[in-house]
Amino acid sequence: MVWPEIESALDNGTRTVIIAVGSIEQHGRHLPLNMDTLDGDELSRRMAAEMGDALAAPTIRPGCSGHHMEFPGTITVPPETLMDVIRSYCRSLDTHGFEHIVLVPTHGGNFGPVKTVAPDIARELEASVIPLADLDEHMQLLNEGLSKAGIEYKQDVIHAGAAETAIVLAIDEGLVRTENIEPGPEGDISPARLLSEGFKSITENGVLGDPTAATTEAGEAIIENVVEAYVEAVETERNAV
Question: Which SUPFAM superfamilies does the record match to this protein (predicted)?
Fold first, then answer.
């Protein structure tokens, strides 16, 4: 968009803006480093379209990805830096007249910083700040999407497996290096160990679970499931203000 289009949207009553918070980090040998950013772009765009009176801001990247730094190409920032960037985004959009700012983290390492900084920003600004930052709920929505597509495959800790591979297939299947798809560890995986010791302490290829179960149809079902749940949550929050 160009700035007069945003000005016109505001003049015509658009008061909600959606900011995804993504990352640049390894996603195995078959998915691009910007997977979480692609996901953020798609979710915020579809949420804005579904709501009809919202805009999607550019996705924030990179994020807090220190636990992936053993894999080349990963770019990480400290939580404090990410929270400062989120503050700056929100301050800017508040200045322009947006009244509801929705934060949508799409990378696991960003959920904590988003949840931490959102109340502080809300106290500072005129706009209401709506963080959709429940990581367990997000993982559940991804697994539900697989199930709705007829794929009975569930992971408690999701990274570059069936769900995320399906999402990229749905966004742009040409970005998936299908010849490089290979499974990673399954079963009980400790998130605490992943964060403290790094992903390579558990998975040599950067993958958790089995991406071979992914399909384009499943990716579409996952995206639709997340968008539906998130739009409902935003509408509830907006109506409560």
Answer: Creatininase (SSF102215)
pLDDT digits (tens, 9 = 90+) for 173-197: 999 999 999 999 998 888 889 989 9
Helix (H), strand (E) at residue 222: helix 216-240
Confidence (pTM): 0.96
Phi-psi region of 45 (alpha: psi -120 to 50; beta: other; left: phi over 0): alpha
Tell me which residue has tokens 């220190």.
66
Q: In what order do the strands lie in the sheet with 54-56?
A: 54-56, 16-21, 100-105, 128-131
Supply the DSSP symbol for 31: B
Domains of the chain: 1-234 (3.40.50.10310)
Cβ contact 86:21 at 8 Å = yes
Local structure of residue 107 (DSSP, 8 states): S
Helices (H), 14-130: 35-51, 79-96, 108-124
What is the phi/psi pair of residue 87, to 5°?
-55, -45
Which residues, 6+ apart, have CB-to-CB distance to 226 below 8 Å? 43, 138, 141, 142, 145
